[in-house]
Design goal:
Two copies of one chain form a homodimer. The two termini of chain A are 21 Å apart. Chain A has helices at residues 17-21, 39-53, 60-70, 114-119, 145-151, 200-208, 219-223, 252-264; strands at 2-4, 7-8, 11-13, 24-32, 76-84, 101-108, 121-130, 159-166, 171-174, 178-183, 186-190, 213-215, 227-232, 236-243, 246-247. Chain A has 271 residues and is of the alpha+beta class. At the A-B interface, strand 3, helix 1, strand 5, strand 6 and helix 5 of A face strand 3, helix 1, strand 5, strand 6 and helix 5 of B. Chains A, B: It holds the Pfam family Aminotran_4.
Chain lengths: 271, 271
C-alpha cells in the first residue's frame, strides 16, 4: 500500500521535482511486527538531509502513523519514505512556495537465505567510482545514478553486492550497504564525508562498538582485512565471503555485530 | 499539454526509477513555429545519454510526432522530453525487462527582456562546486541536485544566473547554461568531460566558430576575459554583464554568436 501526501495513491505529478531533478530524499526502514528498531536514527538522517537540501522536515508522528497505515496487513516489511520539493515550474530555482511531496509505501521484506548470514555473500569489485561531493555525502538523496551504474556492472545471481571505491582508491561501501573491515583486530568503516551514505545500521554499530574507527580505508588495506562485512538497515549484518578472487571468512567481530543486530529486534531467520 | 508513453497524462507511477533514483535523462528543446533548429543535436545528446546509462533510445520520429502533438496550439514553446528506466522493484539493480517511461511536455517559452541580449545578465559566483564524475559528465541526466543547490544560493531577481566551478578552481558553466570566455581574442569554453553538461547551443557555436578552444578554464583566467557570455538552447546567447563585482562588456565575439543564433532560426525579440 502507498500513500502520497496522506492519500492512497500510486502516482505523482510528472512535474514533481523529485523526478525532474532528483530533488529530494528517501529512507528505507525495516519493520518487524509493528516495530522499527532504527526508526529514530532514520528520522535523524532524514532531518539532516532536509537541513542540507533546505526542505521542511515532515512531522515524525505523521510519518509513523502513515507507516502503520501502509503496513497494517504486513507482519514484516520495508517502508520507503520519499520526500521531494514537490511540483515546480521548469528550472532549477526552488519554487517560491514549496509544497513537498511525501510518499510512504510498504514493500515485502526481501527474503535472504540464512546461509548468507552464516557464510556471507560474494562481492563484485565495481569499476564505477563515487565522486567527491561533501554537500551531498552522508545523506540519502534521490541522485543515485552512481549506485545504479555500479549495480549494473554484474548480473551473476551468485554475486550479492558490489564493492565501490572513491576516485582516490579508498573503499567506501557496497552499492546499497555500508562496509566494515577488521584491520589488525580493529573494526574500521570508511568515512562518508566526501561520498557515500551514512547508514543507520552502521550508526547503530558504531554506537554499540565504540572501538570502531571511522577513517579513509585504502583498497589495498581492505583486501588485507581479517574480516569484511556489510551493514544495511534492511538486510542487517552480512559477512563478505569474497571480493572477486579474494576470499574472507567470518570472524568474531561480524558475529558480535550480528548478535547485536538480533538484539536490536531483527531476526536473521527468514519466515 | 503532456504525454506519458504517448497517452495524455500528467502523472507517473510513484515507483518510477526516474523518481526513486533519478535514473533517466532529459532534454529541453526550443521550438519556434513548428521548427526546432537544434532538434538533431538534442537527439544526438539523448542517444549518447542512453548509451551511457544503457537505456533504449526512443524512436526519433515518434518523439517528433509527440512534440508536434503537445505543442499543437503553441507558436513558440520549450519541449521537455524526460526518459526514465521505468517502473522497477525496490533496489538499484536494473529491472530484467526495462519498459522505459517517456514524458513529452510543452511549456511556454520564458520571456526574456530584449535588454538582456543587448546588455547582458548578472551572475552570482556560486559556492557550490561540481564533483568530478566522468561517467555522467556531458550528458543531461536526472541527477541535478548540484544545480539545485547552486541555484538556491541567491534569490535576488536582478541576478540571472550563477557561475559554477569544479573542485579544482576551474570555471565550468552557469547553473543552466554553458559558458564562453574570450581570452586574448580567442573564445574558450570549459571542457565538460569530468563535470558539466555538453550543451547543444554550445555545440552549435563550436561548429560555427571552429577557432573556439575547449579546455580547462581556471577561474582567475575567466575573470580576466575580455568577453564572457552564456549559451543555452532555450535562452540563446547571453552576454554576462557582471560576476559579482567584476564587470564585463559585450564585444564582437558575443555579437557574432548572437547573429549566428538568430540565423539558426531563434529570434531574440520577444513576442
Amino acid at each position: 500500500m502507498m500513500l502520497v501526501n496522506g492519500q492512497p495513491s500510486e502516482s505523482i505529478s510528472a512535474l514533481d521535482r523529485g523526478l525532474s531533478y532528483g530533488d529530494g530524499l528517501f529512507e528505507t526502514i525495516r519493520f518487524e511486527r509493528d516495530a522499527a528498531p532504527l526508526w529514530n536514527r532514520h528520522m535523524q538522517r532524514l532531518a539532516l538531509g532536509c537541513e542540507r537540501l533546505r526542505l521542511p522536515m515532515p512531522n515524525r508522528a505523521l510519518l509513523w502513523q502513515e507507516a502503520q497505515q501502509v503496513g497494517a496487513t504486513l507482519l514484516r516489511f520495508v517502508l520507503r519514505i520519499t520526500l521531494t520539493r514537490g511540483v515546480g515550474e521548469r528550472g532549477y530555482a526552488p519554487p517560491a512556495v514549496v509544497v513537498p511531496t511525501r510518499i510512504v509505501a510498504a514493500f515485502p521484506l526481501p527474503a535472504l537465505p540464512e546461509s548468507l548470514y552464516a557464510d556471507g555473500i560474494r562481492l563484485h569489485r565495481c569499476q564505477t567510482t563515487l565522486a567527491d561531493q561533501p554537500l551531498l555525502a552522508g545523506i540519502k538523496h534521490l541522485n543515485r545514478l552512481e549506485q545504479v551504474l555500479a549495480r549494473a556492472e554484474w548480473n551473476d545471481p551468485a554475486i550479492g553486492e558490489g564493492l565501490v571505491c572513491d576516485r582516490h582508491g579508498n573503499v567506501i561501501s557496497a552499492t546499497a550497504a555500508n562496509l566494515f573491515a577488521v584491520i589488525d583486530g580493529v573494526p574500521v568503516t570508511p568515512a562518508v564525508d566526501r561520498c557515500g551514505v551514512a547508514g543507520v545500521a552502521r550508526a547503530a554499530m558504531l554506537d554499540a562498538f565504540p572501538h570502531c574507527q571511522v577513517r579513509d580505508l585504502p583498497h589495498d588495506e581492505a583486501l588485507r582485512a581479517s574480516e569484511l562485512f556489510l551493514s544495511s538497515s534492511v538486510r542487517g549484518i552480512l559477512p563478505v565471503q569474497a571480493v572477486g578472487d579474494t576470499v574472507y571468512a567470518p570472524g568474531p567481530v561480524v558475529r558480535a555485530m550480528q548478535q547485536h543486530w538480533r538484539a536490536l529486534g531483527f531476526p536473521m531467520e527468514q519466515a
